[in-house]
Amino acid sequence: LAREARHVRRHTEVMTSKSFESMTLDMRAGLFSALSDPIRLQILDKLGGCKKCVCDLQEDVDIAPNLLSYHLRVLREAGLVEATRRGRWVDYELAPSAASLIAAASPFAS
User: Fold this and answer.
1) Is the distance from CB of 44 to CB of 62 less than 8 angstroms?
2) How many other CB atoms are found less than 10 A from the CB of residue 83?
3) Distance between the two ends of the chain, CA-based, in angstroms?
4) Smallest Cα–Cα separation from 12: which of 31, 36, 34, 37?
5) Phi, psi of 81 (to 5 degrees)
6) How far apart (Å, rounded) are the C-alpha atoms in residues 24 and 22?
7) What is the Cα gyration radius of the chain?
8) pLDDT of residue 81
9) pLDDT tens-digit series, residues 48-86
10) Do 4 and 32 touch, CB atoms closer than 8 A?
11) 27 within 8 A of 67, measured Cβ to Cβ
């Protein structure tokens, strides 16, 4: 999973809207794998267009801190969230290309 997610992230950094059509099946599967966990979907819901510190996410998502870090890493490696450091704090937000990436990976994309 992590290897596939890194592969997706590496390719999403250089993708343009035209090159989304060239996503491989492995890249698409890695993205959907990252989306397939209820905790990760809850994290994406909590981020919902705003930047949140990990400490705020910890209050919103009732899981152990090490599991939250793991799920955030999976989402980050899949290119769905971005992290920025603010001193010793880390803020997370939805990646600007997350919606386009998900739409392009869908078998129903036109």
Assistant:
1) no
2) 14
3) 26
4) 31
5) -130, 160
6) 6
7) 14
8) 95
9) 879 999 999 999 999 999 999 999 999 999 999 999 999
10) no
11) no
